[in-house]
């Protein structure tokens, strides 16, 4: 058997590795299986500033959106319990489920296509897990416990007054934030007015809701106080898809091994090129700043969320030692290997065309969506009756007003001609916005107009301006006549 202890292993970029290579384990776990807690250094730099702008903009949007009204409706409400959905102020009902489903599919395809072209940029820039952890909870941790070295020192020391006070303060703030975030999350389901009402009336009046909120808040606290980056490295299904979505032309955060190897410590005044050394000075700043605990120099890894913290850390070091920036940068593996910059190739064009096509189809479905959905159904077991030379059928109607205003509508027979409508109430039917209106009508035709025992008819519903809102095809029953 080959002696592995004397075998030299090399990574994807040529650097010598230990026999236990980096792909045999994850950066957040010891060889014994015990979790290795990650204490990332506080990032700073150009990309960090950009990410902060994006993150805080999305956080403001998250807190403001439940209170925004569009045409008197919530800008976004996903009331699963009452089966009411409002997106951009437009009401959607179970009858529109196919549109919502298609919209979800388009969003998923958009993420997949974006991942194929630009890697895991979604995770690093707009994923709620990253935003809440890195821009809220981690910021509080830095403010209370200090940067990486101070956090590690605090973690190692005994439970003295300082440690108890700092940890208690941090955890208390985490609990309060978890309650706030979950209450706002609940607003997207039942609306902010309902949440305020439930809170004002107290937990004993809404005990079930109270228990649900406690459980959700506890789960939120658990994720961001303890589980943290393991959501990305162990649980998230999107992260597991990276192996089948990305290839050598996918743009990711990459270490330029051609330029960086052979890595060696920095010596002032040394001609590194003449000495056969690369630009990487092996300072480990890209490692200590990583929120998932990996070494980006080992190559593309499943744990990398493309947060760009390593780019900023490396650029800062390159500035200090007078070497060009970009040793770690956004690039494709092919670009790193060949030195040719990534171009807008045919594959990206094809993905873009597919994405635009899906979005156009979704736009068409939304545009062609009727303002009102109508149905005319014959009551179960009902039949026709003949009186004074006329055949009469009874119908139950259901009108669903999908607009933001009340409407007064009338019913007309479109096909065949010469029919009459009798109403159980007024011929002008009021249909309130976002409501379902039901009623009964009777339709009569002269006997000579009905040639078949079951004849197709078409009914239309018009608003006060005479505009056709929707039509419905039904059938009309008559006597069974045998003609020779």
TrEMBL record:
Transmembrane region(s): 50-68, 97-118, 171-190, 210-227, 350-367
Domain of life: Bacteria
Name of the protein in its database record: Cytochrome c oxidase accessory protein FixG
The 4Fe-4S ferredoxin-type domain, residue ranges: 271-299
Record has Nucleus as a keyword: no
One Gene Ontology term, aspect cellular component: plasma membrane
Molecular-function GO terms, alphabetical: 4 iron, 4 sulfur cluster binding; metal ion binding
This protein's UniProt keywords: 4Fe-4S, Electron transport, Iron, Iron-sulfur, Membrane, Metal-binding, Transmembrane, Transmembrane helix, Transport
PANTHER family attached to this UniProt entry: FERREDOXIN-TYPE PROTEIN NAPH
């Amino acid at each position: 058997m080959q002696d592995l202890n004397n075998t030299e292993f090399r990574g994807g970029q040529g650097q010598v590795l230990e026999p236990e290579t980096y792909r045999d384990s994850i950066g957040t776990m010891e060889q014994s299986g015990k979790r290795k807690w990650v204490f990332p250094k506080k990032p700073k730099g150009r990309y960090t500033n950009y990410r902060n702008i994006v993150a805080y903009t999305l956080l403001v949007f998250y807190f403001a959106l439940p209170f925004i009204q569009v045409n008197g409706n919530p800008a976004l409400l996903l009331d699963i319990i009452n089966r009411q959905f409002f997106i951009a102020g437009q009401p959607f009902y179970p009858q529109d489920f196919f549109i919502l489903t298609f919209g979800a599919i388009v969003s998923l395809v958009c993420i997949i296509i974006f991942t194929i072209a630009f890697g895991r940029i979604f995770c690093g820039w707009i994923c709620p897990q990253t935003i809440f952890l890195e821009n809220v909870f981690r910021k509080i941790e830095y403010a209370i416990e200090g940067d990486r070295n101070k956090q590690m020192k605090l973690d190692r020391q005994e439970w003295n007054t300082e440690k108890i006070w700092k940890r208690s303060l941090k955890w208390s703030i985490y609990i309060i934030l978890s309650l706030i975030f979950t209450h706002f999350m609940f607003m997207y389901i039942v609306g902010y007015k309902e949440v305020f009402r439930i809170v004002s009336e107290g937990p004993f009046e809404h005990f079930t809701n109270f228990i649900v909120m406690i459980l959700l808040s506890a789960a939120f606290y658990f994720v961001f106080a303890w589980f943290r980056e393991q959501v990305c490295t162990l649980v998230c299904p999107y992260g597991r898809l990276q192996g089948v979505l990305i290839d050598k032309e996918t743009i990711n955060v990459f270490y330029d091994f051609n330029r960086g190897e052979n890595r060696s410590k920095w010596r002032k005044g040394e001609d590194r090129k003449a000495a056969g050394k690369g630009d990487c000075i092996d300072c480990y700043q890209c490692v200590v700043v990583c929120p998932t605990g990996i070494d980006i120099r080992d190559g593309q890894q499943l744990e990398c969320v493309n947060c760009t913290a390593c780019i900023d850390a490396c650029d800062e070091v390159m500035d200090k030692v007078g070497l060009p920036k970009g040793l770690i940068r956004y690039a494709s593996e092919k670009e790193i290997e060949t030195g040719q910059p990534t171009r807008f190739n045919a594959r990206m064009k094809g993905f873009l065309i597919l994405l635009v096509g899906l979005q156009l189809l979704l736009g068409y479905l939304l545009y062609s969506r009727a303002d009102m959905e109508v149905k005319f159904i014959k009551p179960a077991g009902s039949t026709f009756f003949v009186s004074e030379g006329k055949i009469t059928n009874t119908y139950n109607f259901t009108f669903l007003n999908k607009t933001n205003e009340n409407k007064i509508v009338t019913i007309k027979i479109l096909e065949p001609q010469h029919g009459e409508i009798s109403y159980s109430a007024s011929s002008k039917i009021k249909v309130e916005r976002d409501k379902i209106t039901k009623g009964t009508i009777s339709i009569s035709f002269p006997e000579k107009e009905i040639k078949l025992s079951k004849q197709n008819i078409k009914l239309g519903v018009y608003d006060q301006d005479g505009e056709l809102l929707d039509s419905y095809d039904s059938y009309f029953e008559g006597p069974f006549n045998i003609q020779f």
